[in-house]
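Supplementary Note 2. Why include the ligand at all?

Several targets in our set were suspected to adopt different conformations when bound, so apo predictions alone were not considered sufficient. For every target with a known small-molecule partner we therefore ran a joint prediction. The input for coproporphyrinogen III is given below.
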Amino acid sequence: MFNDLLLKALNKEIVPRPPVWLMRQAGRYLPEYQKIRSRVGFLELCNTPELAVEVSLQPYERFKTDAVIVFSDILLPAQKMGLELEFTDEGPRINNLISNASDIKKLQIPMANEETYPTLTAINMLKKEVGEKVPIIGFSGAPWTLFCYMTEGYSSNNFNKAKTFLYTNPQASHQLLSKITNTLFLYLTMQVNSGAHVLQIFDTWAGILSQEDYRTFALPYLRQLISDLMPLKVPIILYTNNSHHLLPKISMLKIAALSLDWRCNLQEVRDNFGASLGLQGNLDPGVLLTNQTVVREKTKSMIQSLKNWQTGYICNLGHGVLPQTPVENVHAMLDTVFEIANESLVYAK
Ligand code: CP3
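The joint prediction is reproduced in token form.
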């Protein structure tokens, strides 16, 4: 039987318990992931469909999550556009980062097919393997977040190099954002054609922008991407981080749900922006480093923070699972959610 909790929640239908999945649910905290990673590099793992499928299914098999997210990375499209991407122990590294307008001219808008993106083959295989049982989530970064990595070259706390590029080359920045947007549109469209039931767009670095710069450089491209994807009729979840000051603008996007970090109060966001905006989140991944008692308490209080969690709400973290996370704490979080259906009288308000 198909587990339709996620699709129902995104469609604002009443559910007996919230669906639950975790950002970075496949990854280094899982011994079975470590085992595969000890013999293959991260990029090779992403680009080998059989292995990507195996890793995507690990958290589903272990925890019975209510969704399977395809294993890949938001930076792969940047590589396909022409950047030299590496993953080192310190994280991603782009060796020929964008530093002027002529670098942008050289970038491709790659055709989206299985040859360019093995992730599409992985989605296809996942669809065949579990697509009748559980929804499959495809994803990409948001144009602005990809811009950050493409002009900074590394992960950073403040992306100062990216901002300097933005402020000193506004016109070229628009060209780059536009090329990224077109690339992502083709890629996400093909993810849906390959079998993704839901798309999530990660705008991890939206929050570093002022309201004005967000309105000028991030929002128009995100809006274009989302509206171009509308005809596919697939629900879109948008993840933002540290973006309180941007919520009045973000909440106007035509998305099925907004995925928030732990700094936001879910009920406050719902009161301010209305119940037609689905919400996802927002447990601090740091909570999963504690113990099962704390995890259970914090998971319950997150759910109870919403007066009506029965519609338009998806349990998740406020950011990805941390590598040091004990597996039993992830079990504790998920089991707390799974048990709600039996206890819904206790939870109902
Ligand atoms: O959620 C999933 O299970 C699917 C896989 C997934 C990965 N990255 C795998 C990954 C997803 C959805 C992402 C998204 C991603 N990647 C984002 C947006 C979400 C966020 O976390 O903010 C960003 C900014 C990236 C870029 C990226 N990839 C960074 C900064 C790093 C290094 C930091 C780190 O966690 O290692 C990565 C590497 C990465 N992506 C790993 C995984 C499992 C670890 C790689 C390894 O196995 O060594």
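The radius of gyration is 19 Å. The first strand starts at residue 68 and ends at 69. Comparable summaries for the other entries are listed in the accompanying table.
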